[in-house]
């Protein structure tokens, strides 16, 4: 062991440049591997930290809205009856996870303090199904009137304890009879779970308990060990068929309609989706608006990049070892002549390999610690602290040790396998077979580098494509903000507030909607049109909404200002819904279709366009709280925002305007996760190419040293420096071209599969592959020329003398 350690330190001192390059390449690779694996672990362990997560399922019926796949929502009667009649279910309940910000008031030191907080409605069964743990109070007390429960972090933020009062609503409504009480404080859900945003809970009560036609609730059930989820799903279908028929029979006399047998029948399949798979399931309608949604494609792409970076670094590791073999072969054979056992010599080389890897691993951990304080850390969802990622550290260390054994074993075996006489006769390392072996390894690096450049370029182009995609409306120079004032339910008050905003000459248009305009599935009406079940995405808007956002009406007429006060509901539908059979003048529920607009994109571009309708009228169940303000060119954003805040405070002193951002930014939030991961892929692709170039550098240094005599003879025979450089470059250029021929079709297949997850995707241009080839050729020729220049320019006499 002492001799092995001495030999390792000697190698570090004697071969400084090659050792430094080797350690630097491995350090960069291990750092990248650690950072990527932290993100990948965050994604792949989503929801798995919830107790009994493997037995928890989402009840997901086939969507009633005409969408393909399943629905995140289901009716309450069906869910409650399913739980009551299923012996397989240990516990179950519902949650309404839609964002619901509201003003809350807290009395502290004799003063009333106002906060804007989110509270979500749940049933007692949901609390039990998710194994929620109370750290103070009793979660079952949530069923008591005027009760709320807070997560530990939210209670600390609001400085509340069990028994403290809290008020919802306007300041003037803070009466004792509407006072609420904190009855429980529960442990926060894990950050990487579908429920991390549930920081405040209220009881859902009996809302929609007898209405199988309202799909507003997400039901989760925890099954007994060994229970069959398919049997539970089939029971849901049976219950739904029965409950839906009973509901229609009960309501038909009230509606004054006669129902046909077909209308009263609603056979609908159901599936139980495991909680552990929920994060990556993109076939559930409404999932993106209800819970965090990940991308398995992006996650496994990241993992693939990490593995490829390790492969490139280990190829460098092997090549550097082989580059040192000729100068070390003589010393090894001399030791063998003096009786050194082969086993001892091989252990010494393996010890050296492990030493390089462990030293690089320690350097990588040090670099990772430094990354925590950089802007780059914000691109990773989880903490980069070593203590928070012990499993990742263990995996990284295990992989590095296995890699060291694999990468060090072959050179250690090889260099000790020759007869000592070869010390004077050369070896396989300098032979044509040895050169082919090293070039094959280098070729793998080139193939990986070209493939990664193609993939990272495509990811960046897809993000650019999304940013520049014509959504069908004018979202530039539009400011959006949230102002949830109860006074806006009055159309006259709304007009007064909008007029006060538009009095600012920097504002040229003010409108509002009941919720975010660009979102996955804010509100969907399931309706039958010409016998077909159609899911209609709807937005409740002010009459001037289409004008402010530049959406034309191509048939019929626009909304009119008087429609805002009319009890008659009016619709403007998109062309896709018109092609389903609706036309101007048709009735839809209690309203009338007055116009048709072109198809546009109101959902993130991961999803195709669906039937859509704008709704105007005194349909004020949804408040007009999401404002869209078109600004004049060159408007002073800070001044405009300050003016809006002042007018909002004057209009409603108990509320405040918030979440100011440009509409472009609000849309971009829909793609933040993809953009973040694409950036990580791009950065580490550059890193992979840099590591590969280190390998080229090492190989060229080795080759120029081996061919110094040949170069001297060629120069004596009249070869110029330029000809010598072309000779060195020719082989590497040929290798890059061959690797490109292999990498291009593989890269095309990979990026085509990746882009298939987008409903709207950038074309795969030919120049992307040409760019990858040109980039690798350019840096390779530059590296080879730089490394060969000194040898090509040497005096032939000096080269021969040194030989």
From TrEMBL:
The keyword Metal-binding does not apply. GO terms for cellular component: plasma membrane. GO terms for molecular function: transmembrane transporter activity. Residues 304-420, 683-796 form the ABC3 transporter permease C-terminal domain. Its main location: membrane. It is found in: Cell membrane. Keywords: Cell membrane, Membrane, Transmembrane, Transmembrane helix. This is ABC transporter permease. It comes from Candidatus Alistipes avicola.
């Amino acid at each position: 062991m002492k001799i092995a350690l001495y030999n390792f330190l000697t190698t570090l001192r004697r071969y400084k440049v090659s050792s430094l390059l080797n350690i630097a390449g491995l350090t960069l690779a291990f750092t990248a591997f650690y950072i990527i694996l932290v993100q990948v672990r965050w994604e792949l362990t989503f929801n798995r930290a919830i107790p009994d997560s493997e037995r928890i399922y989402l009840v997901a019926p086939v969507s009633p809205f005409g969408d393909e796949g399943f629905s995140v929502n289901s009716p309450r009667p069906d869910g409650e009856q399913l739980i009551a009649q299923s012996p397989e279910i240990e516990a179950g309940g519902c949650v309404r996870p839609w964002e619901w910000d509201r003003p809350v008031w807290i009395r502290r030191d004799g003063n009333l303090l106002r906060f804007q907080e989110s509270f979500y409605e749940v049933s007692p069964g949901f609390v039990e199904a998710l194994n929620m743990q109370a750290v103070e109070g009793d979660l079952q007390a949530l069923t008591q009137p005027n009760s709320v429960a807070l997560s530990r972090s939210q209670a600390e933020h609001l400085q509340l304890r069990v028994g403290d009062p809290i008020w919802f609503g306007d300041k003037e409504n803070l009466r004792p009879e509407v006072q609420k009480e904190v009855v429980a404080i529960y442990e926060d859900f894990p950050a990487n779970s579908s429920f991390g945003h549930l920081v405040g809970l209220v009881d859902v009560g009996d809302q929609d308990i007898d209405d199988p036609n309202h799909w507003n609730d997400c039901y989760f059930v925890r099954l007994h060990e060994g229970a069959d989820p398919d049997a539970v799903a089939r029971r849901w279908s049976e219950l739904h068929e029965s409950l839906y028929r009973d509901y229609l029979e009960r309501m038909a006399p009230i509606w004054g309609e006669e129902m046909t047998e077909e209308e009263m029948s609603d056979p609908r399949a159901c599936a139980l989706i495991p909680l552990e798979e929920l994060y990556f399931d993109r076939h559930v309608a409404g999932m993106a608006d209800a819970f965090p949604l990940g991308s398995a494609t992006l996650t496994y792409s990241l993992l693939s990049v990490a593995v490829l970076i390790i492969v490139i670094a280990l190829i460098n590791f092997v090549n550097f070892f082989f580059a040192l073999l000729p100068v070390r072969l003589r010393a090894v054979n001399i030791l063998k002549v003096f009786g050194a056992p082969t086993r001892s010599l091989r252990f010494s080389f393996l010890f050296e390999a492990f030493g390089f890897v462990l030293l690089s691993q320690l350097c990588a951990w040090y670099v990772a610690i430094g990354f925590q304080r950089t802007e780059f850390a914000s691109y990773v969802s989880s903490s980069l602290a070593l203590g928070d990622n012990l499993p990742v550290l263990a995996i990284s260390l295990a992989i590095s040790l296995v890699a060291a054994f694999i990468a060090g074993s072959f050179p250690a075996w090889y260099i000790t396998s020759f007869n000592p006489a070869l010390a004077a006769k050369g070896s396989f390392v300098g032979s044509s077979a040895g050169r082919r072996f090293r070039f094959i390894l280098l070729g793998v690096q080139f193939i990986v580098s070209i493939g990664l450049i193609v993939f990272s370029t495509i990811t960046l182009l897809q993000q650019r494509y999304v940013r520049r995609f014509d959504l069908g409306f004018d979202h530039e120079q539009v400011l959006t903000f949230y102002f949830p004032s109860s006074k806006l339910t009055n159309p006259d008050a709304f007009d007064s507030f909008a007029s006060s905003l538009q009095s600012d000459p920097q504002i040229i248009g003010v409108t509002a909607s009941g919720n975010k305009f660009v979102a996955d599935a804010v509100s969907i009406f399931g309706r039958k049109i010409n016998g077909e079940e159609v899911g209609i995405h709807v937005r409740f808007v002010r009459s001037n909404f289409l004008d402010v956002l530049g959406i034309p009406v191509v048939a019929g007429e626009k909304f009119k200002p008087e429609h805002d006060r009319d009890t008659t509901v009016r619709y403007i539908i998109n062309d896709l819904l018109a092609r389903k059979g609706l036309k101007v003048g048709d009735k839809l529920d209690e309203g009338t279709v007055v116009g048709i607009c072109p198809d546009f994109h109101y959902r993130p571009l991961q999803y195709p366009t669906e039937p859509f309708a704008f709704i105007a009228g005194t349909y004020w169940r949804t408040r007009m709280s999401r404002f869209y303000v078109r600004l004049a060119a060159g408007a002073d954003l800070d001044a405009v925002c300050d003016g809006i805040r002042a007018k909002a405070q004057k209009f409603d002193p108990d509320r405040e305007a918030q979440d100011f951002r440009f509409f472009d930014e609000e849309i971009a939030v829909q793609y933040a996760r993809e953009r973040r991961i694409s950036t990580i892929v791009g950065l580490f692709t550059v890193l992979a190419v840099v590591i590969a170039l280190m390998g080229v550098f090492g190989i060229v240094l080795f080759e120029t040293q081996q061919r110094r005599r040949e170069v001297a003879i060629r120069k004596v025979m009249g070869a110029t420096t330029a000809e010598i450089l072309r000779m060195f470059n020719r082989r590497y250029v040929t290798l890059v071209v061959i690797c490109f021929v292999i990498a291009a079709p593989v890269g095309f297949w990979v990026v085509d599969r990746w882009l298939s997850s987008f409903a709207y995707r950038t074309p795969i241009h030919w120049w992307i592959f040409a760019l990858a080839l040109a980039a690798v050729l350019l840096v390779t020729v530059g590296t080879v020329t730089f490394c060969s220049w000194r040898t090509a320019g040497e005096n032939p006499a000096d080269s021969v003398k040194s030989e």
